[in-house]
Amino acid sequence: MRVALLTEGARPHPQRGTGGWCDRLAEGLPEHGFELYLLTGPEGTGPERPSPAWRGAYELALWGRRPDGRAPGALRRRRYAGAYEQLVRALVLPGERAGFGPGLYRLAALAREDGTLPAFLASAHARRLLERTWRLPGADTAA
Known about the structure:
By secondary structure, the chain is of the alpha/beta class. The protein has five helices and three strands. The chain has a three-stranded parallel β-sheet. Strand 1, helix 1 and strand 2 form a beta-alpha-beta unit. About 6% of the residues have low confidence.
């Protein structure tokens, strides 16, 4: 089984024992392939040597410089918005969980076609859509 572990900052390493809980998890389940994704700031966490148990370790900056590339046109933005809204609704509205896969796949297909997904996701339009959906009655935002 391939497992993607998403965590924030520098890996949560206690300064004792054989490493942090992320390493212990990956090392304790050698039959699975683990990839580590670190959510970081614009400067990253600096070079870290991941445990040999990791298939890969990647940094994902949460803020900083806007993505390169052009913004989608109006028609394309509406298509992105529809897929993105379906995905976000599936994440926060219990009755719409089935829309997760279709929304994600629609976003991926649109991104393959024109490459403007990063610019759309960084836009005020996407942010407003996320905020509006997050505040809907019945939204489960505890996670």
